[in-house]
Amino acid sequence: MRARHLSYGVAFLAMLGLVVALVVALYNRSFASTTKLVVRSSRAGLTMDAGAAVKLRGVQVGRVTGVSSVAGGADVDLAIDSQYMNRIPSDVSAQLVPPTAFGAKYVQLSAPVGPVVSPIAAGTVIGADHVTVEVNDAFSHLMDVLKAANPLELNNALSALADGLDGRGTQIGQLISQIDTYLDDFNPALPKLANDLPKLAQVLRTYSGITPDLLSVARNVTTTSNTLIQQQASLDAFLVGLTNVSGKADTLLQRNGRPLANLLNYLDPVTQVLARYAPVLPCTLSGLVIDNKYAEQAIGGVFPGINTYTILRPSDYPYTDAKNLPIAGADNGPDCHGMPNLTPAAAAAKYPNYNTGATPPNDDPPAADRLKTTLFGLLAGLVN
Prior knowledge:
10 helices
């Protein structure tokens, strides 16, 4: 019986040891599938030990398996759970930070927010961009500062600061409240500011490119200012003369303002007509230039002079009151009538009627009038 109880006790102890070993193995994640990564830093610090957590966005994704010294720094070996490898990008960075001021360090992985395009590969060496300074190092630096500072001068400075702050709590509170108000007003503009800051670099590059031109303009302005200084006497004389002219012009306008206004009113209809028929002026002048060339050829050609064939025509029809009253009713509008390059079709066009009241001499006289002119010449008017 005792042998059987002894065997039961040994089996129980063996099972208990197996359970403890299994728990320890589970705690050490001995059965988990892990991938090795390395964090290389300038230093690891005093509280970075094996077993420290490795976190990504606050979630533990692995643990530290060891810390070793290398040339110029330290390597921190990481064991990352394989199930998280596809969530860690290749451009990840690391920081060695403690959870509190006096706690042991852990490895914090930092990655951009968004989907992972290129997951990190096994064995990748990650650079550490930040290692928290230990408390003992901070106290050591503080002691160095205190040793370098003169206690009497430091006491005087602190006393002056205390005297300056004494009794001004209300003002300091109002200042802090105003700063908080300013920050509340400033916060909505932060997205625009973040959007404008990258554009500032482009603006600065543009100004950098035109800096030589700006300097050249500045030099030219300097030359201009020096010229103005040298010609100051002439400029003063010009300003005095301009003042005199303005005074005389003011006197002239005061004396003749009404007549000038009336004159402008009278010229208004004339200028309106000239403005309306202004398109005719270029073609008329161009036609006169062409006619002048032909006239020079006709009068000053091979045989200088003018040869004419003249006949006597009867006088115009007598003036009649109803037919020949003058009328100011021309409203044909601007028309060059083919000028300056007159075509045969334009030359054969009917003479335009400008509605002036006088009958244009387009109609040939009757045959009896032509006969009278031929037989009696200048006396034909008496026969009429």
